[in-house]
Design goal:
The protein has 172 residues and is mainly alpha-helical. It has one domain. 59% of the residues lie in helices and 0% in strands. It has seven helices and no strands. Helix 1 packs antiparallel against helix 2. The longest helix is centred in the last third of the chain and has 32 residues. The radius of gyration is 16 Å and the shape is globular. The structure holds zinc ion. The site of zinc ion has 7 residues, from helix 5.
């Protein structure tokens, strides 16, 4: 994973760009969706190996999972804006795997599971991989993760959010 902060701020930015009405519930659901894929670290507890389809960065990081999850959640939480909900939640969920595929460590991301269990990385892998577990996060390693995410996630997100903010301001 990238860190929870990295995933969260990207999800927040996606929501601001796609959903012009700025529904608070949707922002919250998007942030949850961007963090949820890492629930698969529980697989280690059950003895499921990393490279298994249900292992870490496996099914919950796939495009298929993002579609199923977003369809289900948009049906549960919205009656009239399901397409917007689906679009935001799908992008937020998939963005998790995209950031992971740009990290420096671990195994690749199983984007195409269950159809193909290959794991993928992007050519650019400048985001330092985040440690699994809280204790290890508050360390030199954690600081390096935050710094790399600041450069490659936070700064671009702030730029995008500024553009969104300015276009809104001048449209009024
Ligand atoms: Zn992950």
């Amino acid at each position: 994973m990238a860190s929870l902060f990295g995933h969260g701020i990207l999800a927040y930015t996606i929501t601001k760009v796609v959903d012009k009405r700025e529904l608070k519930i949707l922002i919250l659901l998007a942030i949850v969706s961007s963090i949820l894929p890492d629930a698969d670290v529980l697989a280690f507890r059950f003895g499921i190996p990393y490279e298994h389809m249900l292992g870490h960065r496996g099914f919950t990081h796939s495009i298929a999972f993002a579609i199923l999850w977003s369809v289900a959640i948009s049906f549960i939480f919205s009656k009239t804006k399901r397409f917007i909900f689906f679009s935001v939640l799908f992008l937020a969920t998939v963005s998790h795997g995209i950031l992971d595929a740009m990290t420096s460590g671990g195994k690749g991301v199983g984007f195409l599971i269950p159809f193909n269990d290959e794991r993928y990385f992007f050519p650019f892998r400048g985001i330092k991989v985040s440690p699994i577990g809280i204790e290890k996060f508050f360390s030199e390693w954690g600081a390096q993760v935050l710094f790399s995410e600041f450069k490659y996630v936070v700064v671009p997100c702030i730029l995008v959010l500024s553009v969104v903010f300015l276009t809104k301001k001048y449209r009024k």
